[in-house]
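User: Sequence for Penicillin-binding protein below. Tokens please.
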Amino acid sequence: MAGRGRSGDRIEPSFSGRPARDDDEFSLDADDRIAGGRSQRRGGSKPPPQRAAPRRRREPREREGGGFFGFLRRVIYWCVVLFIWAGIGIAGLVVYYGSRMPSASTWAIPERPPNVKITAVDGSVIANRGATGGEALSLENMSPYIPEAVIAIEDRRFYSHFGVDPLGLGRAIVTNFTAGHMVQGGSTLTQQLAKNLFLSPDRTLERKVQEVLLSLWLEQKYTKDQILAMYLNRVFFGSNAYGVEAASRRYFNKSAHDVNLGEAAVLAGLLKAPSRLSPARDADAANARAQLVLAAMREQGFITDSEVKTAMSQTPASAKSYWSGAGHYVADMVMDELPGLIGDVKEDVIVDTTIDKSLEKKAEQSLVDVLDKEGGKLDASQAALVSIDGTGAIRALVGGRDYATSQFNRAVKAKRQPGSSFKPFVYAAALEKGLTPYSVFNDAPIRIGDWTPENYEKKYNGEVTLATALAKSLNTVAAQLVMYDGPDQVIKLAHRLGIESELQPNASIALGTSEVSLMELTASYAAFMNGGYKATPHVIRRVTTAEGKVLYENTYDSPPRVLSEQIVAQMDAMMMGVIDNGTGKSAKIPGWQAAGKTGTTQNSRDALFVGFTSNLTTGVWFGNDDGKPMKKVTGGGLPAKAWKEFMIAAHKGLSPAPLFGNGQLIADPNNGQPMAQAPGDGQLGSGQPMTAEAPPSTIGGIISGVFGGDDNANRYPQAPVRQQATNSGNGPVPPADVAEGGGSGYEGMVPPGDVGGAQTTSSVQPRRTTLLDLIMGQ
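Assistant: Structure tokens for Penicillin-binding protein:
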């Protein structure tokens, strides 16, 4: 049991079995050796007793571990430990997120959204439509500069990594850390493709892990060239363009096959920020990025210094903010019609159209030329054109001044009053009822119910032939013809020829007050050009798959006859008079027979000219989208000028051919006697007296004989005189509603819904074709 020593100190037990004291002298010094259980001093002498030395402290671990190198070893050790644990953690995440993915055996490249390739008659591409906006191309079919530019700026080790590039990822981390913000991505092209094909754009850890797994799968299943081709055909290039073909046509209006080095650099530069770097949005930013791409290509050895200098002059300064060119009006029209022909588009298809690209460009240019030259001063901002051959095939279509500015197709979707361009249907219906081009009507003030149509010039010509009345676009005669034949008969004939819009059965239909589209109006005129057959307008000839399987082919090769040859020949001769001697003189084509009709609506809100040669029927419209009146623009003005410019260009190099019937009248269908030829050049519309061989058949003459020979000029009540406004001292403004197809002569007046209204015995009654009918009032 331990006791206490002196001074009260606690006595600790010693190894010798007795208490150890502070002055204990049995401690060994450093030179003692213990051997055989006892201590001996070197030399064998017994050391003198002395005080025990204090026990030494152990040296610090740093000194024992070797200082700095010990610290370094410990750092390496713990880094290895952390790396192992991180690897275990990453492996766990990969296993976890991988287990949430479908089985790899079910992985497959999703089908690319189907593309609709729309081509002209010569096989050249008009446009591509579909979710991607362009067809898929192999690497061999695209400019070699495109893959080189993309690899140089996006993934320079594309052909050497295994889907994930650790070096590139490390470089990106260092670069971003140095810059203090995200300036470079570490994803490979394979990873980007995997993300585009299979994953959402969400920036989550799960998506990143799945992206890596899918990249490894892609690299194992496909070759590098296949992966690069899939990427270039699916990646987003901005402005709703997916794939290089869509982007090339979107920004440069050419195929990716024809892209030069500078343009390829622009496309590759878009991949970083497609919207912000789009040349359609910011040309300077796009070109600056293209310079970086060219430098990267030079660094990688794809191009030389001299090629860099050349490419800098090739980068486009800017691009349209939208697709440009009239062909896109056609493409939109095709896409509207396609589902009705083949149903839903489930694979790539090729649509062969009836469009002639050279005519399309000439049509667009003719409208732009006239608008640029005279549109501003005459307050005309828009125009449209349709040109159709004898089968109804649309050879050229322009839906507006500039597709990039407005994609609304005014040639197809807009419905406007045709004005006097509707009169040929009125005259053709009258000819079918037995009248002839030489039948005489009285051009004088007329009232039909409460409606008083007036001529544009507010002048009247007395007795005139139908040929002269059509050439001069006399409104009073057209109104009388509607009363003679009845509006229902005019409507039936118009529908028979191709007008599909609803037409109002009132007297004012004679002046074109019912709205129609330019396309249906033009197609209806084609029946006068082709000899009397219906020309159903169509733009799609054939639809095939990419492998050549025919899905649709049109059947407009056997059209029905809608007019007799006699009527066609007479109408052609009469409408030739419109161009030769009437309101359409501005449309004359040197060396060619041409026929047509002008049309102008209320206050010159719409102006039209529709005419034809033996080759083409073309309709032109000028006006404003908001219905704002133009400054005295008539159908014989801007529309006729644009029509002439286009038709001259369209007929260049062709041999002139006469119209049906050679522009001359054939035998009178009523009595079989030959009709008188017009004096001079044989054209109608001169207003010359008739010969004895063809005595005029006049309604006025019949009425005069029955009622005592009243003067025709006094048979109708006088139309009220309208107070005319002045135009800044430049003379009187023509009545608002009488410009060729004008209307009543009163602003805002609605023509009567019933033909005739209250009639007097001096009025021309509808559908009275015999003297007995006139006398009996039936």
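Residues 72-101 form one domain.
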